[in-house]
Amino acid sequence: MLAPLLLLSLASAPVLGPTLPAGDNSQFVGAVLAVEDKLNAGDFGGASKAAQLLPKFDLVVQYDDSKVPPELKDDFKAQRDAALELFRGILKAKIRIGSDHPDLKFSFEPVLANPPGSGIPSGAVLFWSTKPGDSRLETVIGLKRGTPAMAINPVNVRNEIQHALGAYYGLATSPFPGSVMGRTDIDYQTAARPIAAELLLFNETREAILSVRKAVQNHIKLIATRPKVFFQPKAIEMGWAVQGDPEGFQLQITNTGNAPLAMRFTPDCGCVSTTRTQTIQANDSFVLDGHYDTLMTVGEIHHTLLVTTNDIDNPVIEVPVHIKVHPIYRFLVPGGDVIDLPEKGKDIISYIVLAEGAKIKPGQPEVAGVPGTATMEPWEGELADPDLNEAAMPRKGYKVTIHLNGDLPSPGRDPVTVYVPTDNAKFPTLQANLYAQRGIVLLPSQLFMGEIGAGVQKFDLIVSGPAKTFHVKKVSSEWPYVSFSYYPNADGSQYHIQATYDGKSPKGPVLGRVRVDTDDPKQPTIYADIAASVK
Prior knowledge:
Layout: H1 2-12, E1 15-16, H2 26-40, H3 44-50, E2 58-63, H4 73-91, E3 94-97, E4 104-109, E5 124-128, E6 137-142, E7 144-145, E8 150-151, H5 155-168, H6 196-217, E9 222-223, E10 229-232, E11 236-242, E12 247-255, E13 261-267, E14 272-274, E15 277-280, E16 285-292, E17 299-309, E18 316-326, E19 329-332, E20 338-340, E21 346-354, E22 366-369, E23 372-385, E24 390-404, E25 412-421, E26 429-438, E27 441-443, E28 447-452, E29 457-464, E30 472-477, E31 482-488, E32 494-501, E33 508-509, E34 513-518, E35 525-534
Parallel strand pairs: 1-9, 2-3, 2-4, 4-6, 11-18, 20-26, 28-35
Antiparallel strand pairs: 5-6, 7-8, 10-12, 12-16, 13-15, 13-17, 14-16, 17-18, 19-21, 21-24, 22-25, 23-24, 25-26, 27-29, 29-32, 30-34, 31-32, 33-35, 34-35
């Protein structure tokens, strides 16, 4: 009898629940832990009830577009359907539109309120519920974004629905836009795509959901997995460094919980490099080694190391990275990097400022882009460095006189690059990037739409006039399927034009231009060809 009793005892002994991946949100992790706590206590009825908050793979979505303008409803539905189809494939889920006990709800409002600390309205707001019978997640999408508020590109509907589905299935929001979970409150112009790390997370989260549901069904006792992250320091302060010198940092991380701590490290810049992933066992520690590349940027620099974990209390941690880099050299152009170039040509004075003790000997400068020449001579004097917030102070180096001979389309804008070779292996070339411009120009010179289909789409142009203030009076086109809105920057030297295609053009190549009317007597009208084909 002893052996059967022993086996019965072992069978009823609780085991550790599945290890959740780094990057899950607190709503999902909390739901899993609630089920595991009930299972551990032997409350299988309570566990079954708590499991109702776990994501389902047979999903009902309620979609309310009653406040959407009639002309946009079809476009919005097409974007909605694309988002749902994506998740049917990623999670092998049955997702249908309906209103009978929906698991997710989507609706629209004209404009949403600004979130705390933000100067622009929210693009969407998510509301979670743990009340039995309620939808687990409701998402309200704003029909306008930005300041001033402007109608959204329909692709934002797809992005917000994708993000809400990703959140429902457990993933935390990423602060880096472009991926499914990296949402933004600005008017995004392209459809977000899942990145490899997100696809892996969805797969791992799906397996965890199935594992917990199986434990509920089979009355298996589970110990709730509660990894706990503790790290020092809370911020990475690297102090002063010299441009070009390698600089490293360390972060000690300890798991004080009862289960493996999964971590993913994502710097916000390629200049910061670290290990990408790490799993730390319970009551163990790990030292993260990182590196900052000081070669390309100088001054006081702030970056963020994003740490995602499976600790419910700290699913996403933003670790500040702060370093001050003394420049070895500075290529300064006091007149600014956009040159108002007359037909007779122009001399531009620039300076190469070298740090004390810098072992850099510059050679003969060369000019590329717009035709011109450059000469150089030793120099010392007082000069400000606005980009580094430095007032005029004594400096030493070289004075570089750049002569552009005026060979430029009128109006027109072309890049100018000044190269200065050196004898230093770390800094073999010193470079200044400028623009030569004459008159008012459109950037780019065409309204490029590419291949376009049904559905509203938005495109952008910039109207630029260096060293002068002008006004755009009207923007129009003889092609009737596009409309325009526009507004100036702070000093009136540029206007941003947003072109909105209504999605109703017949198929074929587009024959038309954008016309910009200004109050400039020399350029009262500016044209840009529309480069597009309707498929």
